Here is the input.
Amino acid sequence: MAASGRGRVYTYTVVYHATHAAMADKVPYISALIELEEGPRVLTNLRNCTEDDVQIGMPVIVLFEELTDEITLPQFAPVRP
Here is the structure.
């Protein structure tokens, strides 16, 4: 089943303490549970958004961060009007 890449923030938390050295330069960051338009929920990072801006129910869209030639990480960002 294909997914549209669109959804809404179901819940989130702001992470202030990196649990892995690879994330040390990214704190604080928003970890969010996104409910896709098709129904499934995805645990991911919320990008291009501050903790003051994030809201439950906020519409989001997938974006992809290429970490290496073999690894691409799906993340989400707010839908901007």
Observations:
- The two ends are 28 Å apart (CA to CA).
